[in-house]
Amino acid sequence: MGDVIVSAVVSLDGFVADTEDQVGPLFDWYNNGPVEVYGTDPDRPFQMSQASADFARSIWPNVAVCVAGRRLFDLTDGWRGVPPVGEHIVIITHEPPTDWAYPGTPLHFTRSVEEGIAKARELAGDRDISVSAGNLTGQLLTLGLADVLSLQVVPVVFGTGRPFFGDYTGDQILFDNPQVVEGNRVTHLHYRITR
Q1: Structure pTM?
Q2: Fewer CB near the terminus (10 Å): N or C of the chain?
Q3: Exposed, middle or buried: residue 105 (CB in 10 Å: 0-12, 13-18, 19+)?
């Protein structure tokens, strides 16, 4: 069984977006280098630094399923049905859309975090699951369903916004020492949860 990797690009103060869901300079590192990298979408190349490209290439090919919440689904138009990485997208929402514009795509809607991770595990087999951080992070940590946290830390302070850990208020969780990769205007921190 693969890992459940909770991942996001974050500001130094831990936000994945501002209060208006704008990401500002958080995603600049995806296109500030000479190395071309692709996720699943062949029409969406990234231009990363060598270090960031190497890091992405060490993670992305083993991801089978992306999991996200309804907010990100709406903001991205469901990636038009093309998973950012992997072969499937699982959206956790209390209100699945009734007018999805891209039927027949590898998108699956579930109504709870537990159901969403179970569906993702079924689809992933022995490969990894990537969960877009935010409100799902706190829920996954509370339920003990996360294995790894992967933060792409950008040197900017937002002050307020959408926090990486959502509204987590649970017990302390200890993580192993991180894998640290310094890219161009981003530091990749990859932590395994200590069990």
Answers
A1: 0.94
A2: C
A3: middle
Q: What is the CATH number of domain 4-192?
A: 3.40.430.10
Place of tokens 């956790």: 92
Which uninterrupted H or E stretch holds 36?
Answer: strand 35-38
Distance CA 89, CA 102 (A): 13
Question: How far apart are the C-alpha atoms of 106 and 124, rounded to whole Å?
Answer: 12
- Write the single-letter amino acid at 165: F
Q: Over its length of 195 residues, how does the chain's per-residue pLDDT go in tens digits? A: 999 999 999 999 999 999 999 999 999 999 999 999 999 999 999 999 999 999 999 999 999 999 999 999 999 999 998 999 999 999 999 998 888 888 889 999 999 999 999 999 999 999 999 999 888 999 999 999 999 999 999 999 999 999 999 989 889 999 999 999 999 999 999 999 987
State how far the Cα of 107 lies from the Cα of 65, in Å rounded to an integer.
Answer: 10
What are the tokens at 58? 């060490």
Number of other residues whose CB lies within 10 A of the CB of residue 134 = 23
In angstroms, the CA 116 to CA 129 distance is 11
Cα gap 164→102, rounded to integer Å: 29
